[in-house]
Design goal:
homodimer; 524 residues; alpha/beta; Aspartate Aminotransferase, domain 1; Aspartate Aminotransferase, domain 2; 2 domains; three-stranded antiparallel beta sheet; 14 strands; ALAT1/2-like (chains A, B); transferase (chains A, B)
Chain lengths: 524, 524
């Protein structure tokens, strides 16, 4: 397998854009374009902006979670609405971690406060509990003109950053957090891209290299393509429950030093798409590795509240860093990312998130603050939501019981579904599935018959895309092929969220299992 | 003056970062850092990420609207709160177009619907008018799981894009608009940066050049620095009310062709920071110029509802393009930008906006859709807000009267303040001010005594920064120096919003006038 190349540009993705109604064939379009100009008596010139002269980095960007298969799924949705007959009545989109779209209800307290912030006349309404009103008043007082319609400071509202810092301190048993090191963002994605942008420089062999896990969440590969940074792949060990092995990190960084300047290591814990939860020991080893190799550490910890497996526990990178003593805690440069989109709340649409930076050069921090100021500020409703997430109702407050009941129910259901998924998939010959220790996804390995692989190749598709597309057409279930995340050559996977309601999830798991058996027979 | 160089890096900005508490001096810091490592028995290595090895494009980014002077203003705010005595009791931030922060009240209808969307239990509440409930239901039905907490499609919720298209059609007297050409965004800034990113390619003399007005809104120069594109300056004619002269466009593009590949022209109409409203003739000339020079046209029209001066009218670039006939309407590639942050609603915090693309190559559009999918979707509350802005209450609906009353009051007050600003400033010797025909700012020219210019230079500051900083320290009024937007060499300006409530605005205008006279005397 390839050690350091970017993920092979997913040819299927481009090919499948042709499915889209707007994907006119190039030559035909150019001819139309030119004939029109010629008819107008003008010199023949093509578009100012076309596929050949657009930003080549953008062309290289791929984002499978919303790639060709999802576009086809949307099209099938439309066909169903138009009355086209299919072997199913709805498309189930298990491609993305979108809890509310899968029927999860919003947490009452969060939405009460948001409504109060949006329309403060409701502060006189006795239908709202007192603590929701107090939170809303506090947020509004921190807003310009007491309105969430005012811009906030670019780094985020100060009192919310203070709440975030206190939340981190509590999470990490008292290790201090400075609100000046907190940057609120438009979802964690925004903060991750901003941090990567700061880190990229150099040309040729001096170009910044960024270590990412394979499988990875494709935001990383997409951002690196956009920034023309060098992607350095390190492989998680599927046979050991997707664990991370330091020897593999060493191999990857050593090989990469031949052709780029490795400066960053990105870790996703709990894992996306792989669902593993890292041990404390592993985190310590990664920190030691980052220090030895002089790497900036980016810890994507957006699933920190999504841990289900017995014996597993979330350890924050920051906490482990500080527990390793000043030799590490005063030197290793790090950023940690969190989001309002996952955990028990699943509020993806609000685009709330934050990052905490640790040991960052003060001059670089000034540059970071300047950079984020260009976009003015993260969405204020998302900031308000984040404030509630990091500062939920307390036991002596009226909303506490209901809040805890709702929160616990969501997390318990997720834990049940994590177990169910592993259990059912592992009964199917040809599907092997690691436990879903955390996060919201399963990434099972699928054995594909050689005939299917050949057929896919003949049709110019990667085999797991061929598989997923067939599943979509036959069963109306939308998954993301493993190739969209990266996988060892010759292995095939898909990513599926565990978010559908339990009964629907069972239905989906059964459908996929039946399909897999049928697919295997068809191509044997 | 310089024709094509990027704005001179605003040295004051970097210098003034030193004001910030976190700006430790470099050498001192390095020594500390190294001693610590040496004490730990490790080889001396600096930070993984420092000012010298960070992304050099990011270093070149400047954004004066939230630059050094605003940071100093925030610091003075804190000093006041801590009881430090000043010649004033509050800092008035006239640096940014932030209506709510200046006391403008949110429009009731918008906030009612947003509250209903956030907390749908309120749909049973008889305090809300029926039309607000209908809007909320319609938006929620278009959301995944009927929740604004679900991700939307990356291009934005389909029914909202349809509403945007209908709004554009109505605005442009029936010229058709295709919802597939609408991209919702995280404020107009996001859409502008995305569009510029698509357009940038090439190296050396083939590098993409982008024409922007001087003075400009510094989002443009910041984005071009970030993308390492070539900024091509064209100068607005201050003596003719900041009008745009085609001869100047020709001069700029011709000069630029010597060293880059001009591919884009950006126009801000109504103007920011300059407040002019372009005539229909001028827009036609610009379109003709764009076609002749084979340029992609970016029309920043976020102030389209902010037109105050008699005889002035907003003409959309799209409408003029289509009225020029198929020779233009089928060939000129264009994007137009709009926002929920300005006009009568001023809802900056929600980060809502859209762009409409016209005549864009279908393959490039597929790439654009792919690119925006990496960030998943714009904030859904901002999308909901945009829907209400493009589809406000109709005359037969219960909210209509109140909505119109509120809307009219805001726009009438702005018109009054636009007049007042021009009038008062023009009575001051040494301040000359064009009429504020539209938008939300005045950009008066200030005559500075030579002694002040020399003093500023001796202190390493650009003269208008020196002026604005002194105004801030003495009067507590925060403006943005003209150098942050660009201006003809040897001229000096500042940008001020006209947003403070009328009485406060009068107070601010008087304070600035008095300060200007005092400043002139002090340095004469």
């Amino acid at each position: 397998y390839s050690d350091h190349c970017p993920l092979t540009p997913l040819k299927w993705a481009r090919q499948l854009f042709l499915i889209n109604s707007f994907s006119v064939r190039r030559s035909a379009r150019d001819i139309t374009n030119m004939s029109q100009q010629a008819a107008n008596g003008l010199p023949c010139r093509g578009k100012v902006l076309n596929l050949d002269n657009m930003n080549p980095n953008v062309r290289r960007v791929e984002y499978a979670v919303r790639g060709a298969i999802v576009q086809r799924a949307l099209q099938i949705d439309k066909e169903l609405k138009e009355g086209v007959k299919k072997p199913f009545t709805e498309v189930i989109k298990a491609n993305i971690g979108d809890a509310h779209a899968m029927g999860q209800k919003p947490i009452t307290f969060l939405r009460q406060v948001l409504a109060l912030c949006a329309y403060p006349d409701l502060l006189d309404d006795n239908k709202f509990p007192d603590d929701s009103k107090q939170r809303a008043r506090r947020i509004l007082e921190a807003c310009g003109g007491h309105s969430i319609g005012a811009y906030s400071s670019s780094q985020g509202i100060e009192c919310i950053r203070q709440d975030v810092a206190r939340y981190i301190e509590k999470r990490d048993d008292g290790i201090s957090s400075d609100p000046d090191n907190i940057y609120l963002a438009t979802g964690a994605s925004d903060a991750i891209v901003t941090m990567l942008k700061l880190l990229v420089c150099g040309k040729g062999r001096d170009r910044t290299g960024v270590m990412i896990s394979i499988p990875q969440y494709p935001l990383y590969s997409a951002a690196l393509a956009d920034l023309a940074a060098v992607q350095i792949n390190y492989y998680l060990d599927e046979d050991k429950c997707w664990s991370l092995d330091i020897a593999e990190l060493k191999r990857a960084v050593t090989a990469a030093r031949q052709h780029c300047n490795p400066r960053v290591i990105c870790i996703i814990n709990p894992g996306n798409p792989t669902g593993q939860v890292q041990s404390r020991q592993c985190i310590e080893d990664v920190i030691r590795f980052a220090k030895e190799e002089h790497l900036f550490l980016m810890a994507d910890e957006v699933y920190q509240d999504n841990v289900y497996a017995e014996g597993c526990k979330f350890h924050s990178f920051k906490r482990v860093l500080f527990e390793m003593g000043p030799e590490y805690s005063t030197t290793v440069e790090m950023a940690s990312f969190h989001s309002t989109s996952k955990c028990y709340m699943g509020e993806c649409g609000f685009r709330g998130g934050y990052m905490e930076v640790i040991n960052m050069d003060p001059e670089v921090k000034a540059q970071l603050t300047k950079l984020v100021s260009v976009r003015l500020c993260p969405p204020v409703p998302g900031q308000a939501l984040l404030d509630l997430v990091v500062n939920p109702p307390q036991p002596d407050e009226p909303s506490y019981d209901k809040f805890m009941k709702e929160r616990t129910a969501v997390l318990a259901a997720l834990a049940e579904k994590a177990g169910l998924t592993e259990q059912i998939f592992n009964t199917v010959p040809g599907i092997t599935c690691n436990p879903v220790q955390g996060a919201m996804y399963t990434f099972p390995r699928i054995t594909l018959p050689q005939k299917a692989i050949d057929k896919a190749k003949a049709e110019g598709q990667v085999p797991d895309m061929f598989y997923c597309m067939k599943l979509l057409e036959e069963e109306g279930i939308c998954l993301v092929p493993g190739s969209g995340f990266g996988q060892r050559e010759g292995t095939f996977h898909f990513r599926m969220t565990i978010l559908p309601p339990t009964e629907k999830l069972k239905f989906v798991l059964q459908k996929i299992s039946d399909f897999h058996i049928r697919f295997t027979q068809e191509f044997s």
